[in-house]
Amino acid sequence: MDSILVRGGGALNGQIPIAGAKNACLALMPATLLSEEPLTLTNAPRLSDIRTMTQLLQSLGAEVAAMQDGKVITMASHGEINTRAEYDIVRKMRASNLVLGPLLAREGHAEVSLPGGCAIGARPMDIHTDGLAKMGAEIDLRDGYLYAKAGAGGKLKGAVIDFPFASVGATENILMAATLAKGTTVINNAAREPEIVDLADCLRAMGAQIEGDGTSSITIQGVDSLHGATHKVVTDRIELGTYMLAPAFCGGEVELLGGRIDLLEAFCEKLDAAGIDVSETDAGLKVARRNGRISAVDVTTEPFPGFPTDLQAQMMALLCTAEGTSVLEEKIFENRFMHAPELIRMGARIDVQGGTAKVTGVEKLKGAPVMATDLRASISLILAGLAATGETTVSRVYHLDRGYEHVVSKLRGVGADIERISDK
Ligand code: EPZ
Asked: For residues 423 and 1, is the Cβ–Cβ distance under 8 A?
């Protein structure tokens, strides 16, 4: 397994290009199952999760071709569709469960393996399945697979669905399923993430009738069929937020190309409170520390438009060297502080009690060998190493490859002393 070696050093200056959003692309790709005509995605990120989704769609009978070094993905599912999403692919990536809604809508039945737990939590699918049941689907769990069948005539029917929690994946599954259902579907307490709006934009381009995406209530008028489309994947707000922290850790000034403030307002408010300046430029966002040491701030993760859980690990790493004590509350996942013990190895002072972590700032972290435990934890350890004294080696970087393209070159491009060590 590869590792990444980081040598703590000086300020970072220059530009970092931000890619298309992993979590948008992983919802957009299954949408190809909703039409027999080609769906093309541009500005797609080059990530292992995208390759996993490609394998899954190909196993279902879709044709998927990546062009321009993976930035363009053209898909078509006009042949015979296999409706069984196998465990050995689904267990690698939870987002595989986003084929459930489209398969049900297109074929009237589906067998999708439950993804199983992952490092950050149990991640059940009850909100997905309860919503589809409201649309007339019969869903049984057998040998680890969800066996789903649409109701009368093999078609889902429109329904009013009240979510107990604003689940991103459940919103995406129901949104896609409802585009071809008979009648009108309303999703209340829907997720409001920009990735939901991006999916709705793409589905509308395919002929779907959707209103209210981006708000807590989405209305979908089912249509008989959808046609092909070409859609540009929205900017990755989590990659954006991650790299906005690089100059916050190390000093200097970095411009994030393609960055948009509207994708991360709650996050930017916290950066401002911590003493980090964010300004809009013609090319994106420019970020710099206002003066020396940053200030402690309290953070609570919430569904959009609140502070994103996917930036909690990175913010915790930053606050390890803040002046004062910060309290971070993780309200979305039950086990998303696994980066804390690794940061403590670097000299951080963190007290974790259940879903709350109290971080007492120290002057400097010290480089150390640390282990990535999940995607967002891995990048937070790299950022911490950039600002620490000495060398930090982050192992198990396959987690990183799932969600961050070309990390070494992007950070080297602003002056970081970082290299990837292959253990082959
Ligand atoms: C999406 O996961 C993202 N993944 C996650 O990003 C992100 O952290 C999460 O949304 C929250 O923003 C993708 O988009 C591919 P949820 P998802 O359904 O859809 C519980 C990353 O690092 N829940 O909003 O799985 C669940 O257990 C990843 O890029 C149920 O209880 O998130 C969790 O505690 C990590 N029942 C909470 O809701 C359900 O049926 C949020 O889950 C569904 C979810």
From this structure: yes
Q: Give the separation between CA 302 and CA 88, rounded to whole angstroms.
A: 31
Distance CA 274, CA 261 (A): 17
CB neighbours of residue 180 within 10 Å? 23
Q: At what angle do helices 126-134 and 100-107 cross, to 10 degrees?
A: 20
Cα 258 to middle of ligand 1, angstroms:
25
The amino acid present at 52, given as its one-letter code, is T
Residue 371, pLDDT > 90, answer yes
Q: Is the CB of 115 under 6 A from ligand 1?
A: no
| Sequence spans of domains, the chain | 3-19+235-421, 22-232
- The CB density around residue 353, as the number of other CB atoms within 10 Å, is 8
pTM above 0.70, yes or no: yes
pLDDT above 80: residue 118: no
Query: Whose structure tokens read 């809009």?
Result: 280
User: What pLDDT was estimated at residue 265?
Assistant: 97
Q: Give 22-232's CATH code, choosing from 3.65.10.10, 3.60.20.30, 1.10.3720.10, 3.40.190.10.
A: 3.65.10.10
- How far does residue 143's CA lie from ligand 1's centre (Å)? 23
Q: Are both 3-19+235-421 and 22-232 of the same fold?
A: yes
Rounded CA separation 30/146 (Å): 17
Q: What is the pLDDT of residue 117?
A: 65
Nearest to 97, CA basis, from 152, 199, 168: 168
Report how far ligand 1's centroid is from the alpha carbon of 332 (Å).
8
**Ligand 1 contact, 247 CB (< 6 A):** no
Q: Is 319:365 a contact under the CB 8 Å cutoff?
A: no
For the chain, percent of residues with pLDDT exceeding 70:
99
Helix, strand, coil % over all residues of the chain, rounded to 5? 35, 30, 35
CATH 1.10.10.60 fits 3-19+235-421, yes or no: no
Q: What's the mean per-residue pLDDT of the chain?
A: 96
Q: What is the pLDDT of residue 178?
A: 98
Q: Residue whose CA is closest, atom 25 of ligand 1?
A: 169
The Cα angle at residue 207 between residues 168 and 258, in degrees rounded to 5: 55
Q: What six digits make up the tokens of 392?
A: 């930090």
